[in-house]
Amino acid sequence: MTAQTTVQSTAGNSSRRDFMSRRAIAATVGSLFVVQMVTAMVGTSLIQDFLDGANEAAPTVGVLLMMCSGIAVVGIGLLMYQVLKDVDRRLAVWYPILRIIEFAVSAACGVYLLTQLQVVPNHLLWVYLPTGIGGLILTYLLFVSRLVPRPIAVLGLVGYAALSLGVPLDLAGVVDMNEGAGQVLLVPGGLFEFLIMPMWLITKGFRPPTTVKDGS
User: Fold this and answer.
1) CA dist., res. 41 & res. 216, Å (int)
2) Which is nearest to 91 in space by CA: 80, 101, 102, 100?
């Protein structure tokens, strides 16, 4: 009886540690989503001020903020992999890879701006591309696993699909994602990353996954 009680207690402690670990990951990811959005928006605004001539100083602060955003993005990718790998390991591994690519592209554009004092043509579109594809992987896995409520996952799917679609449309000259109607394509993804997803993760955390695939 004592041995059985010990086993049950050990199992309970293990489950509690797993829950706390997942809960900590959820809260951290939720916070990082907010950090990456805020730093990206402020950094982009400062860089745009420089390009518009409103601030003639080298856009160092803007680039540094974009680097902070990129580090947060990588953190999101690495932390989410710890959760998504239990859903589909082979697909989940691409999420942190694409987030690292996103950071690398953003960093390269930042270095180019600081050294040449001009931006890479369509620099935001090259950042949006890995963001959109990685986001589709993230939200698909969230949808099939029900780690978060499906309406949240659907909002993310719509947002990242719109972002991914907007890149070729912008390159083709059909829309301009930096102004006017083209900015509408950024709204669903912005709501997902800046408001809905962070609020849920910080306050509720992840649900137990309902779909598990061994991708090994």
Assistant:
1) 38
2) 80
